[in-house]
Fold:
Amino acid sequence: MAILYLLDANTLIDANRDYYGIGQVDEYWEWLVHFGEQGRIKIPVEVYEELKAGSDALSAWAKQGETETALKFVEEVDIDLVRRVTEEGYAADLTDIEIEEIGRDPFLIAYALADPASRVIVTSERSKPRAQRKNRKVPDVCVQFGIRPCNAFTFGRELGFRTDWRDHL
Structure:
């Protein structure tokens, strides 16, 4: 069974800003699209809309038709799983302000929770096991629900990213 990698927005934001800049390491962005077309990498629609909302190079890349078609995960989220992730993973009595601060993370986690054996969440967030409520981190909530989280470098290694990736398909 092939693993589906679900990307958190911070994975792409950090990659563009820190190590695989668009226009500098285009092979990375082409690699993402390729594996998106293969159904191995997806970005939940709620997260994808966040990426498109900006006015930088990353937003422009996300708005490209080929990119969006390849990477946007159009599976319908199970709202009961979103509720469960929010209530059990963060807190059952979050305020509206806390829910806003958590953002789209419960959606991302709910998509993985729909099939935790074959879905991995790729995030730049680092575990902070003692954090509570709105301060909980994606890796900790994932582990609580039996979902494997990983960072961008583990993700790249597992799918074999290299600048000459096309030569190794």
